Amino acid sequence: MLCYVCAMCGRLRTAIRPACVGEENWVGNRTVHIGHKEPPSCAEAYMPQDYPDNRIVSSKYTFWNFIPKNLFEQFRRIANFYFLVIFLIQLIIDTPTSPITSGLPLFFVITVTAIKQGYEDWLRHKADCSLNECPVDVVEQGKVVRTQSHKLRVGDIVMVREDETFPCDLILLSSSRYDGTCFVTTTSLDGESSHKTYYAVPDTMAFRTEQEVDSLHATIECEQPQPDLYKFVGRVDIYKDKQEPVVRTLGAENLLLRGATLKNTGHIYAVAVYTGMETKMALNYQSKSQKRSAVEKSMNAFLVVYLCILISKAVINTVLKYAWQWSPDRDEPWYNHRTEIERQRHVVIRAFTDFLAFMVLFNYIIPVSMYVTVEMQKFLGSYFIAWDEEMFDEELGQGAQVNTSDLNEELGQVEYVFTDKTGTLTENNMEFIECCVDGNVYIPHAICNGQILSAASSIDMIDSSPGGYRRDLFFRALCLCHTVQVKEEETVESIKRGIHQGKSTSFYISSSPDEVALVEGMKRLGYTYLRLKDNYMEILNKDDEIERFELLHVLNFDSVRRRMSVIVRSSSGEYLLFCKGADSSIFPLVVSGKVEQVKARVEQNAVEGLRTLCVAYRRLSESEYLEASHRLTEAKIALQDREQRLAQTYDIIEREFVLLGATAVEDRLQEKAADTIESLHKAGMKVWVLTGDKMETAAATCYASKLFRRSTQILELTKKRTEEQSLHDVLFDLNRTVLRQRSISGYGLSLDCLDFGLIIDGATLSGVLKPNQDSAGHGNYREIFLEICRNCSAVLCCRMAPLQKAQIVKLIKSSKEHPITLAIGDGANDVSMILEAHVGIGIMGKEGRQAARNSDYAIPKFKHLKKMLLVHGHYYYIRIAELVQYFFYKNVCFIFPQFLYQFFCGFSQQPLYDTAYLTLYNISFTSLPILLYSLVEQHVTMETLKREPSLYRDIAKNALLRWPAFLYWTCLGVFDAVIFFFGAYFLFDNTTFTSNGQMFGNWTFGTLVFTVLVFTVTLKLALDTHHWTWINHFVIWGSLLFYVIFSLLWGGIIWPFLNYQRMYYVFMQMLSSGPAWLSIILLITVSLLPDVIKKVLCRAVCPTASENAQVRSSHRRKVGL
């Protein structure tokens, strides 16, 4: 009874407590009992919950479901399903060709794909097993027990040693460091190699042994698993001696993520809160949306056309068959007597059966092997990017990576490039340049009379400058308002010794390069941050004295506030709130200080392309501090809406600041970034820069990177201008400006005439994209904005949130031209636009690897984008366009003679070719040459493509797969097919065709047509080849030789497994005839001649830019350049 009452009291306390801390709605949270221990009797009732084990499963298949599941997935593809239907028709009804002719190619395609997918899944199984069987140390009954990773459960206490990887998501309880912290690298999660600091729960940080940890009675209440790596909301209730539980807040700084690695810390004890597929790393396994290239869409459109042609052929032949048999004397020829069952069958059923038979006979016009060849071309071709030594970066020790091979050819179709600025165009390698305090500028290593002063001399100059108190407070603020950590191996004495010896090595590590640059800058100006110990931050001032400040609260930086703050207490007991952030977020909160002088310096530095931050402070009375501390604690404890509560609390605390000054940090432009952007412009691409930086800084970078030229007329669509005019008026003014210029240039495409540059900020963009316009009905702002952008050679979008970046990309994607877009960035804030664009490219930068992990391709530096697009993209598109058109061409050549043959065999569905030829035509005889061509063809050299970026325009807008090009290839196939068939037909008219007077039969006729066909389509590809290597010769001439040898063996041996021998001696008999040799050579020549003449005339009369480049390249080689 007593236990029941205690349990009811616990439930009542649970119901009351949320109301106190703001957790009104706790639906969906989880309770974790540390060590699986029941809480004391007066706590909440112990209700064990069922959580998944720690098993990771990334594989798609099991041994039992592989065959049915894989077959189901493969036959969801329309092409595979179509050929399955054809195969089943051949099995069910009497068709003119053997089911093997459709079944074998389909079986080959399905088998190859299944083996590839099975192998990939087997690799995933191996990776899963290595993870799941990894040894883990668990604390049980006061002892450390070794077990396997997959046996971990939520609530287990885990011991992790230095350099070991966390097996699941853990809450840090204690560490071997006396301050309860540990250092972690998250390289495998987000690519950041810097050491991050995590904190133990204050009440458990003193636990040092397994027995102490095992004695803990506590429960953790936290949110259900979420994929956001940087967000966690929870709290821990610690029970001590039947007293009310001590409640401590838990946040992302307490959560150790699976996949991260423990560094510079002997060992830690932590409790598992998320395991297996519920860990944040596993939740981020979810696949990205499938992207389809323009070439794939063209292929599907062409397939629909050919399907219509196939149905038309079948309908025409069915109608003509019954028209031809309408006469009684032709109804039942002596060689084709029908059975009684056939006589009694209804005419509609007979017509439908004949229609299906004709569909089967002509179905080879749709090439099933094209899908396999395209997949192989994309898969194998992607290795050329990874193997490119010019795209290897020595500093990073990495080359380009291909995360998906489905979009290789899309690299050759890009029309819009959206790029981030910091870390993408710039190096993200920050260097402190200067700071401005109350209008006075301080520069480390200042230049005086042409000589660079030492650090000591600079400090002497500072000592003599006015405003000493405010200046020193500014320096202290930058030494305290940050999240920088001192390297583990550094001590206070070693740091002081390094300063006195003038060493330039950095003692600091941080996930933010800006913060390290600012702290380093302060060190050069005489104020050195030493360490954080026992919640006290230590500073070495210019007098070589150590100052200690107690760190009370950190108001973390976020992209909405764009600032961070700390509350500290000085040794004299004074409470200080220091804040640093973007000028736009600091100036509105300032009530005093030399605002105008600082603002002028900030604007000047921004124009010079420097990154600026403003610093302010506020003194707090004890009552103000206690109120702020209470609000912060209450917001941090909340499980529901914690982020919103913290944001509201930060806004209440961060107010009425006194402005101290501003800093300027330089982020240098990346090597060859300007050259890359200039090349992209020449290639016809429009480059947009999307950044969160202020307008002046971003504009300076755009000028330095040649995005904007000095002759560029800048159009501004900013908040400042829309405050003076309405958004409607500004948009229409800008639209009139660009339209007037376009009318003057006569609607020309000259960039000199249309050289506009647009600058827009995030606030104005929100108004442009707002779905509901004002009541005045001024029209669609989006369309006006797009019209302005179409006439601008470059666009700069500044003060952009990550979501706005994706909205911009989506806006351009969905415009009426439907251009191909590419997004490139290096940080987590770029992931949204990378996923939104047709092609996403990640930079392996210093802001982590989130962008590289979520992209389609990853490159070390921005300069590598030039070769990625202008060379690899150009080649990929040329190759696959030829592959697609060539496949349709050779299948028209293959099947159209079969269609013509029906007019000469009474529409009896008699096949023209032997079953072996029908089966192997696309699989063996003509497949390898085009596959090799699509991998190694180079119509112009790499050097030419890099030297002449304008060649990219030749292939823009899917130029080689438009309908005119498709129609030309189809008509060429029909022409060649007519030459094959009627050329052989008229030559066969001679009844004494052979030397012994023997007449050729229909199989000899079909073999002659097929021989001309194979040689013609192969030689056509040889004529299209510009880049010859030994492997080209081997494959092209080897495939022709293979056809001849196969035909000799197929017709020269009586095969015991065949129930017919209709091809016996046919090929050899044909080759024994001199006229047959003459006709083969003549028909091949006549078939190839029109295409050769067309190319010669076009090259002479209206050569393309690529053809002119070929001539120039050939001339350079002759003169030895």
Automatic annotation (TrEMBL):
Subcellular localization(s) per the UniProt record: Cell membrane; Early endosome; Endoplasmic reticulum membrane; Membrane
One Pfam family per UniProt: PhoLip_ATPase_C
A GO-annotated cellular component: endoplasmic reticulum membrane
Domain P-type ATPase A: 135-281
Residues that hold ATP according to the record: D420, K421, T422, E515, F557, K580, R611, T691, G692, D693, R799, K805, N829, D830
Entry cofactors: Mg(2+)
Membrane topology: Multi-pass membrane protein
Binding-site residues for Mg(2+), renumbered to this chain: D420, T422, D826, D830
Alphabetically ordered keywords of this record: ATP-binding, Cell membrane, Endoplasmic reticulum, Endosome, Lipid transport, Magnesium, Membrane, Metal-binding, Nucleotide-binding, Phosphoprotein, Translocase, Transmembrane, Transmembrane helix, Transport
Main location group: membrane
Domain P-type ATPase N-terminal: 48-102
EC number(s) stated in the UniProt entry for this protein: 7.6.2.1
Superkingdom in the source lineage: Eukaryota
GO MF annotations, alphabetized: ATP binding; ATP hydrolysis activity; magnesium ion binding; phosphatidylserine floppase activity
Domain P-type ATPase C-terminal as annotated: residue spans: 852-1104
Residues forming the catalytic site: D420
Reactions catalysed according to its record: a 1,2-diacyl-sn-glycero-3-phospho-L-serine(out) + ATP + H2O = a 1,2-diacyl-sn-glycero-3-phospho-L-serine(in) + ADP + phosphate + H(+); a 1,2-diacyl-sn-glycero-3-phosphoethanolamine(out) + ATP + H2O = a 1,2-diacyl-sn-glycero-3-phosphoethanolamine(in) + ADP + phosphate + H(+); ATP + H2O + phospholipidSide 1 = ADP + phosphate + phospholipidSide 2
Membrane-spanning residues: 75-93, 301-324, 355-374, 916-936, 966-988, 1000-1022, 1034-1058, 1064-1089
GO BP: positive regulation of myotube differentiation
Subunit relationships: Component of a P4-ATPase flippase complex which consists of a catalytic alpha subunit ATP11A and an accessory beta subunit TMEM30A.
Family per record: Belongs to the cation transport ATPase (P-type) (TC 3.A.3) family. Type IV subfamily.
Protein name: Phospholipid-transporting ATPase
